[in-house]
Structures are given as C-alpha cells and as structure tokens.
Design a protein that fits this description.
mainly alpha, 421 residues, 2 strands, two-stranded parallel sheet
Length: 421
C-alpha cells in the first residue's frame, strides 16, 4: 500500500481495498458474492438517502419503489457493467466511493436537521471521517467533493452554517492534498506523454459530455422514469416540510449541473493521461448525473409553481401502471438488461467459465514441463456483462506477467495462441 502511494498513485484508501481482493486469497466463492453485495448496497443506500430526504412526503412503499427505480436505472444504463460491478478493482475504486457519498449525504442531512448520531461532536467527526475516506478512493471523487463543498459554502444562508461547511471544505482540501502530492502520481504520469494538454482535455471532455449525456437522456427507461417522477416532484414541492424549501438556487444553474458532473468525471483522465481510456469514471458520473437530473426537475417545478406557471400534472392511475410496466420492460430488454439477458440465453457465462477452468488445468500441467512459455487457447466466448480484460500474445505484456505470477510460474511465461477474431 505504501509502495503504491510512492510509486503509482495517491489513492490511500482504494489501494488498501484492492489488496483485499478475494482472488489473492483463493476465495473464489467470496469473489463471486461481491457483485451481488454491491447490487444490494446500491439499492439499500438509495433507499436510506431517499427515506432521509422524503419520508415526510411519501409512504414507505412509495420510497421503496422510487429507490428501486433509481437503482435499476443506474444498473441498466451504466456504461461498463463489467468494470462497474463484476470487476473487483473497478467496483471498490469507483463504485464504492459513490455508495459512500450517499451515506455522507444522508449523514450530513441528519446533522443539519440536528438528528445526531450519539452526540453532535461525534456526528461531526463522523462526517469528517467520511470525507477523508471518500476522497482516498480516486481523483474524480476527490474533485467532485471539492466542488460540492465550495457549492455548500456559497449557498448556505446562515453564517453559522457557512462556517460549518467551510470547515468541511478545509478538511476536503487537506485530504485532497494528501492524494495530490503522492510521489507515485508523477511516476504514473510519466507513462503518458500526451498529458497536461489543456486545450485537448477541454475539447474532448466537452465532446464526451455531449456524447454520454445524450445517450443517457434518450434512453427509453430514463424518459419513462422522468415522466413518472414529475407528479412526485409536485408532491415534494407541495409538502412544506420538504428539503427543497430550504434551497434557493435558480433552475438555470441546476440545469447545467448534470452536464457539469459528467465533465468533472471526464476531464481528469484526459488531462492526466491524454485519453479517456476506460469508462470507469463515467460509471461513477452516471450515479451523480441521475441525482442531479431529478433534483433539477424538482427545482424547475418549484420555480414554475412559485411563478404560477404550472399548477397540476397528474397521471391517471391506469396510465401510471402502464408506464411503470414499460419501464420494467425497458430495463430488461434494453441497455445492460439486454446484454445480461443475451449472455444468459446463449450460455455465455457457462462457456466462459468452462474455458477458464480448462486454462487453469493446462497451466497446472505446464508447471511440471520443461518448457519456458505456455501457449493458452483463446477464449471462445467473452460475455459482455462479465468480461473485462484478457492476456495477450506477448508473453512480456504486463497482464501476462501478472497472470504468470498469480499461478507461481517463477521465470516461466504464458501467452495466447493467435486468435481468429
């Protein structure tokens, strides 16, 4: 962990979790359970936050349905489901801090409402702990936490509240400095000669923001969820105890918020490496994009009602049921739902598992042979919902070397046979 901080990156928390990968302990059964754990965790923390903010507006059943819709929307739209949920390193580095951010928002809301955990001082220290913990996972969550706390400082109405947010902002900056000054950052950056090109980074981050926001907004279940949410947003506004009445932000500002979040999560990879290279940061961006999108709807309807530009928007009960059924069908038969379903129908996970087991048998028999390089067959099937990365035809490639080290092959190496793809 210290070696990673000194030689690769400043992620002082996620580096620790990566070392806990169950595969390194031969706990395959646990590795297989972790994706299920993360799916459940997405649902649970969504329900906790929604209940904290809206328990005076909606019934428990309604909150459960809203939480499930949010969770299904995220899982069905996430750009790379394999890297988000099924790849341990990706899930603990990018998905876990998003989940913890929901816990932080819930804790912060309770603190502001004086519903303290044990004691005000303990609760405040708990919030500080969560900030330090979340920032230590990755650079994009660090940047988001900085911007959010700047936003909190400037939108706080009371002086006492502003000082409180200012203190949290200072903690955020200190934790970010620990991440930023890590010696490993410069070593890692040396592998990317096209880094630090500000014009290139801004231009391509803008293009990716347009690309992903467009694909998310025109997604069928997303449109249906937005329509179903409008009557709920009106109920939230009509409830005088709702959190929205303590927020005074012009909707023109919140309109840009979902797109700004995508930009925040895309810009650091481009600036630090010159390329996007992966969709892990966008997996995280979607989490906060969805929150900001529905918050923006609430804020716009609040603005329209204050100016008497909207009064009622009711959806008949029968039509509401039809829209909800269409939403569930959309989640199942489009996006990641379709990907997972086709993988299952064509038995891709079973074939994939069989191919990997055959590889392991071949590697074990290779250990006792007097040859230096083991040639492994290519995978016949790569399930899109599970597959992340494979070894290559170059025995000196880093993935091949790590693969060989995992099986304790010593100086022996492994490579793929030529693949016909």
């Amino acid at each position: 962990m210290i070696q990673d901080y000194l030689q690769w990156n400043g992620r002082y928390i996620s580096n620790f979790f990566v070392l806990l990968n169950p595969i390194t302990w031969n706990l395959f059964w646990l590795y297989k359970l972790i994706p299920l754990f993360f799916i459940i965790l997405i649902i649970v923390v969504s329900l906790i936050l929604i209940h904290e903010l809206l328990h005076k507006v909606f019934t428990f059943i309604e909150i459960t349905i809203i939480g499930l819709i949010f969770s299904l929307l995220y899982i069905s739209q996430v750009p790379d489901i394999a890297e988000c949920i099924y790849w341990f390193t990706g899930s603990v580095t990018y998905l876990l801090p998003c989940i913890l951010s929901f816990i932080y928002f819930t804790s912060l809301s309770r603190y502001l409402l004086k519903k303290y955990y044990l004691h005000p001082v303990f609760h405040f220290l708990f919030n500080i702990f969560l900030i330090i913990f979340i920032i230590g996972f990755n650079e994009v969550n660090m940047l988001l936490m900085i911007i959010l706390h700047i936003f909190f400082v400037f939108t706080a109405r009371k002086i006492k509240l502003r000082y409180m947010f200012l203190s949290l902002f200072l903690i955020t900056c200190l934790a970010s400095i620990v991440m930023f000054v890590a010696p490993g950052n410069s070593i890692r950056a040396s592998y990317f000669p096209e880094k630090y090109d500000i014009i290139h980074s801004l231009l391509f981050s803008l293009l990716q923001t347009i690309r992903f926001s467009s694909s998310w907004i025109i997604f069928g279940p997303f449109i249906l969820a937005t329509i179903l949410f409008i009557p709920l947003a009106i109920r939230i506004i009509e409830n005088q105890s709702s959190f929205i009445h303590s927020i005074n932000i012009h909707p023109y500002i919140t309109t840009f918020l979902p797109f700004l979040i995508i930009f925040i999560f895309v810009f650091p990879p481009y600036f630090c490496t010159g390329i996007l290279g992966q969709h892990r940061t966008l997996n995280s961006a979607l989490y906060f994009f969805l929150i900001s999108w529905f918050f923006n709807i609430i804020n716009w309807i609040s603005y329209l009602k204050r100016n008497h530009l909207i009064h009622k928007f009711n959806i008949e009960s029968r039509l509401k049921k039809v829209l909800f059924i269409l939403f569930l069908c959309g989640v199942m038969f489009t996006g990641n739902g379709y990907t997972a379903m086709t993988d299952i129908i064509y038995n891709k996970p079973i074939i994939f598992d069989k191919d990997l087991n055959n590889r392991y048998i071949q590697i074990e028999s290779f250990k006792n042979k007097n040859i230096d390089i083991c040639k492994l067959p290519c995978l016949t099937i790569k399930p899109q919902s599970l597959f992340v990365l494979d070894i290559t035809e170059d025995e000196n490639h880093w993935s091949n070397i790590i693969y060989a080290n995992y099986f304790f092959l010593g100086k022996k190496r492994i490579k793929l046979e030529p693949c016909n793809e």
